[in-house]
């Protein structure tokens, strides 16, 4: 089993969700987060004063999948989230040792 963590631009969330639904990925956790990567934020002007915005709004997606489905899920996320501009985000894939569905006590891939 794999845990896929993706940090994407907020306006790309619906496209990513639809792309994952097309390949039958069910269930995800979405968190609104702030952060920066190589772009290190940007400057803006508000009422004539310039200030730096260090942390940019992002969306963090967490999806647990089977080993077989993980590469397709990663590809779907990358394709749907890509704009080709700086700040598109990152995808991380981690191994999952165990998954347990609390309601039924199912374990392993059956719990996903």
UniProtKB/TrEMBL annotation:
Protein origin, superkingdom: Bacteria
GO biological process, one term: regulation of nitrogen utilization
CC terms in the record's Gene Ontology section: cytosol
Family assignment from sequence similarity: Belongs to the P(II) protein family.
Subunit structure: Homotrimer.
Name the UniProt record assigns to this protein: Nitrogen regulatory protein P-II
Record PTM O-UMP-tyrosine, positions in chain: 51
InterPro entries registered for this protein in UniProt: N-reg_PII, N-reg_PII-like_a/b, N-reg_PII/ATP_PRibTrfase_C, N-reg_PII_CS, N-reg_PII_urydylation_site
Gene3D superfamilies: 3.30.70.120
Single annotated GO MF: enzyme regulator activity
Keywords, ordered alphabetically: Nucleotide-binding, Phosphoprotein, Transcription, Transcription regulation
């Amino acid at each position: 089993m794999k845990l896929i963590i993706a940090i994407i631009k907020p306006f790309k969330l619906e496209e990513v969700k639809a792309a994952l639904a097309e390949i039958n990925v069910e269930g995800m956790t979405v968190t609104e987060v702030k952060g920066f990567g190589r772009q290190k934020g940007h400057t803006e002007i508000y009422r004539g004063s310039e200030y730096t915005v260090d942390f940019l709004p992002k969306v963090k997606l967490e999806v647990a999948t089977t080993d077989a489905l993980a590469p397709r899920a990663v590809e779907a996320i990358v394709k749907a989230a890509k704009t080709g501009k700086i700040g598109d985000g990152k995808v991380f894939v981690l191994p999952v040792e165990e998954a347990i569905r609390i309601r039924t006590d199912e374990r392993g891939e059956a719990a996903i």
